[in-house]
Amino acid sequence: MPRSRINGNFIDKTFSIVANILLRIIPTTSGEKEAFTYYRDGMSAQSEGNYAEALQNYYEAMRLEIDPYDRSYILYNIGLIHTRNGEHTKALEYYFRALERNPFLPQALNNMAVICHYDRGEQAIRQGDSEIAEAWFDQAAEYWKQAIALTPGNYIEAQNWLKITRRFE
């Protein structure tokens, strides 16, 4: 039974009902419908913390989905899972791939900046390598600037950090 039929969460059920109605109304191929079903089931599993199941659904959705925009969100969600699992190199790879297909994903840019700053830059400081840390902080700044350019009212903490560190132009 598809995950969308067994999930007890009210919001997930509501989303599933609306999504099913839209799939019936909007003209789509059976492959697109199947891809969306896997994507929806992946989101549901991810929201419940079932990351292995979510990844299986996302990989199947990627196999079926042909639209680059839709694929970008699948790749982004795969990146989120790798971030959550502490696999930051893999996460960065998936965020990059998502941005190749959809350069208007400020959340991917923000997550990349967070990894560069808090994982890589802070780690370099703990290891006593301030030069490497500064390079990571500069990279984080570039990603945050791009994210802020796409959504100027968001990422206030990042904007403050950019100003304090004189990285905001």
Automatic annotation (TrEMBL):
Gene3D superfamilies: Tetratricopeptide repeat domain. InterPro entries: PSI_Ycf3_assembly, TPR-like_helical_dom_sf, TPR_rpt, Ycf3/AcsC/BcsC/TPR_MFPF. It holds the Pfam family TPR_1. TPR repeats lie at residues 35-68, 35-68, 72-105, 72-105, 121-154. One of its GO terms (cellular component) is chloroplast thylakoid membrane. It is found in: Plastid membrane; Plastid, Chloroplast thylakoid membrane. SUPFAM superfamilies: TPR-like (SSF48452). Its main location: plastid. PROSITE patterns: TPR, TPR_REGION. Keywords: Chloroplast, Membrane, Photosynthesis, Plastid, Repeat, Thylakoid, TPR repeat. GO terms for biological process: photosynthesis. It is a peripheral membrane protein. Seems to be required for the assembly of the photosystem I complex. Belongs to the Ycf3 family. This is Photosystem I assembly protein Ycf3. The gene is ycf3.
